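Sample A.
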Amino acid sequence: MLEVSGLKKNYGDFKLNCSMRVEDGRITGLIGENGAGKSTAFKAILGLIAPDEGTIRIFGKEREKLSVDDRQNIGVVLSDSGFSGYLTIKDIIPVLKHLYDRFDPVFFRKQVRRFQLPTDKTLKEFSTGMKAKLKVLAATSVQAKLLLLDEPTAGLDVIARDELLEMLREYMERYETTSVLISSHISSDLETLCDDVYMIHGGRIIMHEDVDVLLSDYALLKVSEEQYAGLDKQYILRVKKEPYGYCCLTDQRQYYLENYPSLAIEKGSIDGTITMMIRGENV
């Protein structure tokens, strides 16, 4: 559905260099701290900035060769853009009808009522949560085959984030072959939503893993210096010195559970994994 190969963009001190794939019918997450390169990657994929190197293929075609119909099959949410603040939802409906042949106004209006979005107020009067819901709602009302969602939950409270994620889950149930690339710096959002995640740091992909594997097979070992000295380190990915000894990241949790029953072993999480991948060192 989407394939990014050797994408490079140089902004002086910041350099993006990444490759990733989004398979059919899967939700793929791109996670990293603010400034890691998530938005730059999205803008390059959409052709909003020109990459210095690399290829981007969508629906099996190079991005530059996409037809008008192909582009109508892409739903987009960007973190730093949206509709004019002087428009109302009533104004937006004919705009979406004009831009997307498959825009579903019945579904759109139904969701507007469901999420209690005011139809007569201008968007500049909307709360942050209302604006975010509207952007995701617009992207999911055009029957797109590919959704590109850059930080759609940024700045939202827990309830608003949960409502947005539920909207996306329902969309995937409705259109099972749709693919989604979603970025966030809030790992808990992606743990419950995504099939796989890419971790980006300093413009580079530092890890790609299925979420189920990450949550079941990865773990943090909290060990004393004595325990660390006697530890089989063949399955240790990263290690970080701590006041009590060492914190070790492994992708073979069961091995250490069976062979080192006395160790303090924390089950894997996206937060713990990305922290260790960034701050930890190779063994």
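Sample B.
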Amino acid sequence: MPLVTYKNVSIKRQDKTVLKDISFDLKPSTFYYLIGKVGSGKSSLMKSMYADVPVANGETADVLGFDLLNIKSKEIPYLRRKLGIVFQDFQLLQDRSVYSNLEFVLKATGWHDKTQMSQRIGEVLKEVGMSTKSYKMPHELSGGEQQRIVIARALLNRPQLILADEPTGNLDPNTGFQILTLLHSLVESGHTVLMATHNHQLLDDFPGKVFRCINKQLLQDN
């Protein structure tokens, strides 16, 4: 059963069609690349999956059981809780520690028990190799370390689907390689990852299924 199904979907930004009549599925425990030039629609497609950009029209637009063609605003937070989102620019809260950043997300998504929150934060930090950094402030971390914290944040609510928008874009090649190794390891533990990038070298180093945004279309490599 696919986690995501789009059938004949179009996406617009400010009345301009970005992607037209696209159809694809995302299946469980699979690594997908989303390739395309800047402005080709990669980010718009990802943002449509968590209802940050509306789906203009289509036959089917289903993400984790949510119908994006008819989703109500009150349903959007519940959709986003089932997704993990990894941003290129980190979007960590600079005025609080790593632990407090993660605790903030748990509280915002309905967690109340301090012991359970502490246990979950410990689990995700261990998963991304950052167990000893919980007391650090974001500015005390390297870019690669900050991105690991962002991935930990994305994992907090045990999402089936992780959307990573250019997660290595601000990192040096070696650090980017480490982040890709981490993201690929998540597939082995049952997650599906959709990663937008324009770095074609990554496809050779870390094979996955490939979608390409070209001329407002979404094409899938064989």
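B remarks: Residues 125 and 149 are 7 Å apart (CA to CA). The first strand starts at residue 4 and ends at 13.
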